[in-house]
Design a protein that fits this description.
112 residues, mainly alpha, 2 strands
Length: 112
């Protein structure tokens, strides 16, 4: 038996931290700020300023909760949107379908 100690490799936090801004996902926080700023400065009314400020506070609260749950939740959602809505059951990935089945189960991402 080999009784050598295991080698440890340091994992630096700067390389594994999520890209957050004001506690939420960077792109979503900046986009919600853009929408709130547009609401405030486009209408030049007190009502729109109040609605824009309330929207900004609510969006920031929700985005912080989302980032606390999972900092990469937006990436997981965007990846989920790419998946096919239905995967037909097949006995093996190498199964050859008949022509009628091939038309029914054709790949929507494949360019024909």
């Amino acid at each position: 038996m080999n009784d050598l100690p295991l080698e440890t490799v340091p994992i630096h936090r700067a390389l594994t931290r999520s890209n957050l801004f004001l506690g939420g996902d960077r792109e979503l926080v900046m986009f919600s700020g853009l929408i709130a700023g547009t609401m405030v400065f486009y209408a030049f009314e007190w009502k729109s300023a109040v609605v824009g400020a309330l929207f900004w506070c609510f969006a920031l609260y929700v985005l912080r909760l989302m980032a606390k749950h999972d900092p990469r939740l937006r990436d997981a959602y965007m990846r989920h949107r790419v998946y096919k809505p239905y995967y037909p059951p097949m006995s093996t990935p190498w199964r050859e379908n008949a022509d009628s089945q091939a038309r029914q189960y054709r790949d929507p991402w494949k360019i024909t």
